[in-house]
Amino acid sequence: MTFLHPQWLALLAIPVILAFWEWVRRGQPIAVPFDHGTQRRGLILRFFVLCANCLPSVLLAIGIIFLAHPITFLPPEVERQLNNVQIVLDTSGSMAENHGSQENGRHRRFDSAMDAILQFTNYRQGDAFGLTIFSRHFIHWLPLTLDTHSFALARPFIQPNNPKLDPPSMGRHGLPDELWGITYIGKALMGATELLAQRPTGDRMIILITDGESSDIKPPLDAPIIAKLQEQGITVFGILMTNEPVEPALVGIVRATGGEVFNAATPEALKMVFDRIDQMKKVVVLEKKPQVADHYRPFFPAAIGALALGVLALFGLRFTPW
């Protein structure tokens, strides 16, 4: 706590002097019939009377403190810089292939990707996340939102469809391969770029998750994609869900934006990749200056208490005998 006008505090000498004088002064003695009696000195009563006489000095001191305008500094507001993250997820039929251990039942590349996405979005609370699914075409399934619960709700509706791998008992889900098959990464990246370009504030990032090559990013088709990403200041991170070499064209696009591309042949490796992305794209905390606030509250109870006791003392707690 400090004071906006500390010069007024010098006046506190006045109530201190008045209170001291109240305790040491003799006053004007008045002769009464029992002055020479054997009654007790009444030291306890004298103490309470002197305390009551000092209450005006206490009120004066509190008034001077109010004039000095007590203030305090509130903790600075902490605000994190918003990251706009568009996850571009391959949902072609090949994403239904097995990924990692199958000891606990069928586990597909799509399952590993969604598990990692859910964990990442829950961990990075405060960032805006969107979801784009793609194969031959792309669909912005989820707009950029702070409500990451939407990803879990979307999961049943975007599963890849692969009749060759999934038994009939699983039923058909996702879009038919005749309509949705083939992987066009370039088209999906351009669509996500246009979406992120609409965000007026915050960093922009694309996390691309795929398991295949794409014919629409091979030179010279990669040049306009790189130019567009750089123009919008978008960083791209690429994740290949296999241990095969990453397509050179994709490596060139990703690294041109300041990102990196990773292989993730197992769920454990995929988790490590997302941890690595989190480290590379740290949360930026913006700390504002401390806020100044009035600090009268601690003095109000003392002022009200002193005023109430002073009023009660007026009903007879004094030295005068009449």
UniProtKB/TrEMBL annotation:
<dbReference type="InterPro" id="IPR036465">
    <property type="entry name" value="vWFA_dom_sf"/>
</dbReference>
<keyword id="KW-1133">Transmembrane helix</keyword>
<feature type="transmembrane region" description="Helical">
    <location>
        <begin position="44"/>
        <end position="68"/>
    </location>
</feature>
<keyword id="KW-0812">Transmembrane</keyword>
<dbReference type="InterPro" id="IPR002035">
    <property type="entry name" value="VWF_A"/>
</dbReference>
<feature type="domain" description="VWFA">
    <location>
        <begin position="84"/>
        <end position="277"/>
    </location>
</feature>
<keyword id="KW-0472">Membrane</keyword>
<feature type="transmembrane region" description="Helical">
    <location>
        <begin position="6"/>
        <end position="24"/>
    </location>
</feature>
<feature type="transmembrane region" description="Helical">
    <location>
        <begin position="299"/>
        <end position="317"/>
    </location>
</feature>
<protein>
    <submittedName>
        <fullName>Ca-activated chloride channel family protein</fullName>
    </submittedName>
</protein>
<dbReference type="Pfam" id="PF13519">
    <property type="entry name" value="VWA_2"/>
</dbReference>
